[in-house]
Each structure stands twice: as C-alpha cells, then as structure tokens.
Write the structure tokens for this entry.
Amino acid sequence: MSGPLLSGSLAKAIFQGFKGKLLTGQLRQQAAAGVDEYGDPIPGAVTLHAMQGFTDEYDDAYRARAGIPETDLIVNIFAQSLPAGIQPGKDDKAQFLGQWYQLRAVKTDPATALWVCQAFKVDAP
C-alpha cells in the first residue's frame, strides 16, 4: 500500500500545501561532455529548469556536530516544482532571488517531496 502513496500522491499534496508561498528559481544542470586527461569532467550542455523552494540555515549545534562549514546553508527544492524526471545532483547550481548556490550534497525524504541540499553561495555562472 505504501507504493502508490509515496510514489507521487503525498509529494503532490505537500507541494500543493506550500504552493504560492515559495520562492521561484531555477536549477542549472550541466552535462559532462567526457573527461580530460586527468579524469576531470569536460563541461557540456547546460539545461535550466524552473523550480520552487526556499533556503534555510543550519542550527549551530548541528553544524558543529556534522562538520558543516560555516559558509554552507540548506537549499530546499520541492520535487513537484521540477519537470518530471529531473532531480538535483551534486555540483548542480540553484538560484533564488538572484543568488546562486552550488549543491554540495543532495538527499530527499521517502516520498521524494522535498530535496534537501547542502549548498554554498557562488557567483552567477
């Protein structure tokens, strides 16, 4: 019974509850066009996706216990605000209110309603 509930209905209901109260932004994903002689990715095509979410700060005690740098913050992205099949990933960039963030780590809840991303501020790409 948990399959259908967690496969979209719950995520959709959560997103509808927040709709209109979230920041609009964009997720920037850059595909790799291969690797160079050192094994580093060669930048390829860039895709921008509209999204909705918000940023938040880590609690100081949690930050200290988890070893999270003081420069990092939380970028929350509602999965239902992204096009079907699009998932944020490490090193993607997110933008809210003109500020860009690079995603350092990405995780989601069991319903895939919210992507919770550890991120840091970067210059506009």
In short: Confidence is low (pLDDT under 50) at residues 1-5. Residues 2-18 form the longest helix (17 residues). Helices lie at 2-18, 60-66.
